[in-house]
Amino acid sequence: CSAGPKGDNIYEWRSTILGPPGSVYEGGVFFLDIAFTPDYPFKPPKVTFRTRIYHCNINSQGVICLDILKDNWSPALTISKVLLSICSLLTDCNPADPLDVHLLEGLQAVHTVDQHKAVCHRVVVLGKVQAVVEPPGVIE
């Protein structure tokens, strides 16, 4: 994982996360935007995926459903810990708290693990294509 400011704006960051080894996202490269409010570190940053991802806790706009980015935020958390938590979410989704209920229903309709892996693999490949066509300039 890496993260840093976009240009001179210390409130707007860009991050890169690699798909965790052993996960269905392995080999993927995911770009995220991190927006800090003036209340940081007392309020959580807003973290969103710029790279499309097929995940029940991340919606089509890139919004992430993760407790530490909402009610369980603590000023003791660092951006490194936030990114590590997002990587953990990529390894193990939380179907008890889906952000995209329709996607979760679709995942439950997938009859085999291999079918689910195939769909996620296609998303990883499309993300790589997106990164080439529209490079995000991770740290400008």
Could you characterize what this model shows?
The structure is a single chain. The two termini are 16 Å apart. By secondary structure, the chain is α+β, with helices and mostly antiparallel strands. The model has no long low-confidence stretch (mean pLDDT 82). It has a single domain, classed as Ubiquitin Conjugating Enzyme (Roll). The protein has helices at 79-91, 101-109, 113-133; strands at residues 2-6, 9-18, 29-35, 46-49. The protein contains three helices and four strands; from the N terminus they run E-E-E-E-H-H-H.
The global form is globular
Averaging pLDDT over every residue, what do you get? 82
Looking at CATH, the homologous superfamily is Ubiquitin Conjugating Enzyme
Structural class: alpha+beta
The CATH level-2 architecture is identified as: Roll
What's the alpha carbon Rg, rounded to whole Å?
15 Å
- Tell me roughly what share of residues is in helical segments: 25-40%
Number of helices: 3
- And the CATH topology? Ubiquitin Conjugating Enzyme
Distance between the termini: 16 Å
For the secondary structure, the number of strands is 4
User: How are the strands ordered across the major sheet?
Assistant: 1-2-3-4
The structural domain count equals 1
Which CATH class?
A: Alpha Beta
